[in-house]
Amino acid sequence: MAYAARKRLAELLEDAEREGDFSTRAEVPADALRIRVDGVGELPLPLRAPVARKLITQARQARFGRGAETLSDTGVRDTWEITPDRITLSGPDWDRALGDVLDGVRHALGLPPTTALRAEPHALLVYGKGQFFLPHQDSEKDDSMVGTLVVSLPSHHSGGELVVEHAGRSVTHRASRHQLTFVAFYADCRHEVRPVTSGYRVTLTMNLLAERVRPTDEDAGGPLADLAHCLTEHFTAPAEQQYSYGPPETTPPNRLVYLLDHEYTQRGLDWDRLKGADATRAARLRQAAGQAGCEAVLALAEVQETWDAVPPYEHYDHYGEVEHFDDCEDDECEGECLLDPDGEPGAERRRSGDFSDYELNDLIEDEINLGWWTRPDGTGGERISLPVAYAEVCATTENKDLTPYRSEYEGYMGNYGNTLDRWYRRAAVVLWPRQRSFAARAQADSEGALRELQGHLDAGALDQALTLARSLAPFWGQYGSGEATAPHFADALRVAVGLGEADTAAMLVAPFRVEALAEEHAPDLARAAGRYGRAWARGAVGGWYGTVGAYTSADRTAWLESLPALCTALRAADGDGEAVATPLVESAWQATRQQLANWLGVGREKERQAGLARLGAPLAHILQAADSGTADTIVTTLRGLPDTALECLIPALRAAGRQPRAIPEGAPAIGAFQALAGHCEERLTRVVARPVRAADDWSLSPAGACGSGCDLCPDLDAFLSSRSRKVLEWPLAQARRQHIHSRIDLAGLPVSHTTRRQGRPYTLVLTKTDAVFSREREARVRAETDLAWLRENGPARQSG
Ligand SMILES: O=C(O)CCC(=O)C(=O)O
Ligand SMILES: [Fe+2]
């Protein structure tokens, strides 16, 4: 079983924990160090109060970093600071003493013997009574920085303990009064300096830097063969699923993601600078990988967990039921503070904070994403975005035993219980079988994969390129739909042309959206169609276009503007550009025709007019791009539409008129626009010639039967069609009044409806409004204007 392999692997790496701690301490006789400070002179040790006060006269208020900023806030950090350029360290024995301490620290922290530590002075700090530094994490100021070394100078003081924490454990260090006290900890450990209660506490802080001194060829120890066996098993057994519904997987997992315990920055992620147990575990895994024919890289993972969780018992007040927002002091509050933590009605019961004392019940959901990884050859790394599947994850330390960097709690919301979301940053060793290396990396870095394929093609290694490209098929479809991937369409297309295998080429270009297509792709598009045939091209365009009628973004309207130029370039290119241009135009037309039909069916005039007018420009672009056959089909369809289609056709003609140069000379579009213009002119002339409505003519066209065969609609139609009846008083029960309302509103009729709430049933009063006349007047004016414009500027005139 694959699960057993992962479990065993995690256990095999468990004992590495004993090989390193996150923090360590050492004492050295005070006379090992001579320390001089500019403006003060050599500091006599143990340090006494007058000297400490003299140091303060030379110091500044210490600052601290938050994000990219450096801040000064004595509520967070209150201590005096002297910069390292003003400090000189010496002493006959100092270098050797420090060297010994660093060697001990290296060993205690579990860094491999192939690594050496160096310490660089960072600051001299003086803490007087009441001064402190709240919990924080030190920033890694240097690529090779792995931690901090705090050297406490001996002095009489109380308080001022240095508390260091990692993975739920914490150690408190007190400084010696007579000796130098060295405390070292990894840079990802949170630590604090508790307030000094008497005397002065003086520390020299140093950055700990790690450097490789010997190659890592020695055996990292441990049951390597066992580990290698687990890897082989993991990569041969079918991947198991988290939930048992759905068909079982038949293929093995693509990779193994072994989560480490410490946090790392992108810069600090390096095989030689791993911390504590991580170093041993990663070294063993890497060696096992070598034996099992696998490749290993380091990665950074973002983990999110959602737990079913409850607040600790103490958070319930004496009612035994009610939970309060942390700061709530309102005696009469019955927990409303939680519903409304900001005093805004309806604010959600969601808040962030430290919920480490909450009790975790069940894990509802977890999600792991890799955001960065190093290259297999160890040269740098790259940003990636790769969700990790359940069957790929393995860890010796569970997430819940680590400290999340963010937590959010949401109280009971009906559908869900109380949930606690926790986010962690973890590093990981990611492994995959060497033969599947290309696909394993490609899933995270599609651009890199395309580059590699092109490289093989350029080098004439066609067979290899084909084998690798085929291995992308299982997951390549998830790629390409985002805007960010559009720029890589050109790369995918070029590789597709080069491969010479129709199915694989189709798979490579399939995930992109049509918006990614631009004029510059025309030569390769035409070449691909020439190579793989018309059916291939039609299939590819269908995929790029997506399902007709599916939601399409505003981007598509913008993209249609570029369609004529794209099609012109396609037709001019070598190969078979027409094979791509034709289905592109046809698909665009099918989608637009569908929208046209939808808008024509809308009764509310203003809405319909606006909707149809918006389709004008896209329609013009499609006609501009069409070949003569498609242009004819389009014109024939448009001619067959009702008069309301003029609300789209005139805007289309106007759009075409605005950019006559977009139509290539001799293009079928010229004839199509002329035919349409002639058609519109004919229709408008008929509209304008209609007799003006007589002042006493209130007749409207019938709204038609509603389809449910009700007895009301015929009566409504009789009223609407009547020349003389302006008002209808109609006693109707509520549901029936409702039906008439909706019939009138849906059709956008110039009829007002009110209900007179007297008697039973109430009376629905329908009144034809002046819009019966005004709409017709407006329509006539519009028709006259359009007709005048057509006669003056329309394409029919321009042809000459
Ligand atoms: O003074 C100390 O012991 C530690 C100070 C510290 O945490 C820092 O400078 O970042
Ligand atoms: Fe610190």
What can you see in these coordinates?
The protein has 800 residues and is α+β, with helices and mostly antiparallel strands. The protein has 5 domains: 12-110 and 115-212, Sandwich (Jelly Rolls), CATH 2.60.120; 224-311 and 355-438, no CATH class; 459-510, no CATH class; 513-689 and 771-800; 712-769. The strands form 7 sheets. Strands 20, 21, 22, 23, 24, 25, 26 and 27 form an 8-stranded mixed beta sheet that branches. It has a 7-stranded antiparallel beta sheet with strand order 1-16-12-19-10-8-4. A 5-stranded antiparallel beta sheet has the order 7-11-17-14-15, with no helix packed on it. Strand 23 (359-374) and strand 24 form a beta hairpin. The longest helix is centred in the C-terminal third of the chain and has 23 residues, at 578-600. The protein is elongated.
